[in-house]
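Q: What residues go here?
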């Protein structure tokens, strides 16, 4: 079978199950579930894959964080295999305001189409990856080695325009709590130790470090989650919760975070306070887009009439746990338009993710991924 014949077979197969795929996307859209609570999504997708001769496993590891993860395998005992990454968690109050229902739909469709048309030495896996919006299921999946042995991983994200390339920011959220000693604010015998003063000083220091210490691309956002109980009592504990991001894991883990932690220790010592720090979410690594896969996506998206804007290698406006996958195996994540100039995490985006146009674009996205995977497989040289 020629490559063109394989591509035609894959696209025809997606057309043959298009209504079922749209029903999947619609069901997820109408039953939004938060991260680690995606039980209906897991059941629906599992049954869908099993009906198409995929073997399905739910849970995957002993990690409680992966209780709503799943994998659907087809002939993964073959010499080569490729992974399609699905997401299905929703946002509080917005439902599928990031379009994860369409991501699942596209990756399921591409997995099935690839299984029907791939060279005989290739197998495939659909990975259902939970909680991208919160703890990052792919972080734990990568740590467990679930992506090892795959020749590549593909995923398409819906968006407000067509894009390929760019990167994502590494992020490792940090919580800092200062502990002082309370007393009455007007006491003549005890001035106490004001933990809020420590937290405010750290907040101000970080603003200065952004321009003088941190490397290019650093982003730190902070809020006070504990700042005292009454204005006439010296605050005995105060907490800053921060999203801390860098252009690369190296920048984040060796420069930005150590500088923040060192400054927190210095401030605590100056006031006679103590400080505790912990990461309340895991490390999301920066995205390393694979050039071979990006080139194929550019070709295929253009052939399907979705000419992508090419992003500079260092352009990043967010973070994703797909970055952790990209540190393990060749990975690419382009963006496919489901409505011009839409912004993710909005009500308008959630509506587009359930619209007829959004579903039709997801059918096209499944075809694009399947064709990219086939061209990658046929030309693969290790």
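A:
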């Amino acid at each position: 079978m020629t490559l063109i014949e394989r591509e035609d077979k894959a696209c025809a197969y997606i057309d043959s199950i298009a209504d079922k795929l749209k029903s999947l996307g619609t069901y997820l859209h109408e039953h939004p579930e938060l991260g680690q609570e995606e039980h209906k999504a897991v059941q629906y997708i599992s049954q869908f894959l099993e009906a198409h001769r995929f073997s399905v496993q739910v849970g995957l590891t002993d990690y409680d964080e992966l209780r709503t993860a799943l994998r659907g395998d087809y002939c993964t005992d073959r010499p080569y295999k490729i992974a399609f990454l699905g997401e299905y968690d929703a946002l509080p109050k917005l439902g599928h305001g990031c379009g994860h229902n369409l991501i699942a739909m596209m990756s399921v469709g591409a997995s099935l189409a690839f299984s029907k048309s791939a060279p005989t030495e290739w197998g495939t896996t659909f990975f259902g990856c939970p909680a991208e919006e919160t703890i990052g299921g792919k972080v734990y999946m990568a740590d467990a080695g679930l992506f090892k042995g795959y020749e590549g991983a593909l995923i398409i994200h819906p968006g407000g325009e067509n894009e390929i390339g760019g990167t994502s920011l590494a992020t490792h959220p940090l919580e800092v709590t200062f502990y002082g000693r309370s007393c009455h604010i007007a006491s003549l015998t005890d001035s106490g130790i004001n933990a809020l003063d420590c937290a405010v000083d750290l907040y101000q220091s970080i603003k200065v470090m952004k321009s003088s210490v941190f490397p290019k691309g650093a982003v730190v956002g902070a809020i006070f989650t504990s700042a005292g109980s009454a204005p006439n009592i010296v605050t005995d504990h105060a907490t800053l919760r921060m999203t801390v991001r860098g252009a690369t894991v190296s920048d984040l883990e060796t420069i930005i975070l150590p500088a923040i932690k060192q400054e927190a220790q210095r401030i605590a010592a100056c006031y006679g306070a103590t400080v505790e720090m912990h990461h309340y979410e895991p490390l999301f690594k920066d995205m390393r887009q694979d050039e071979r896969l990006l080139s194929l996506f550019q070709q295929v998206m253009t052939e399907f009439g979705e000419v992508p804007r090419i992003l500079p290698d260092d352009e990043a406006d967010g973070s994703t746990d797909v970055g952790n996958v990209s540190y393990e195996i060749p990975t690419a994540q382009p963006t496919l338009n489901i409505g011009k100039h839409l912004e993710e995490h909005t009500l308008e985006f959630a509506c587009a993710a359930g619209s007829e146009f959004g579903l039709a674009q997801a059918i096209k996205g499944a075809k694009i991924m399947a064709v990219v995977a086939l061209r990658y497989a046929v030309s693969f040289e290790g």
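A: Context that may help when evaluating the design: The chain has a mean pLDDT of 96. The domain at 172-278 is CATH 3.30.70.360 (Alpha-Beta Plaits).
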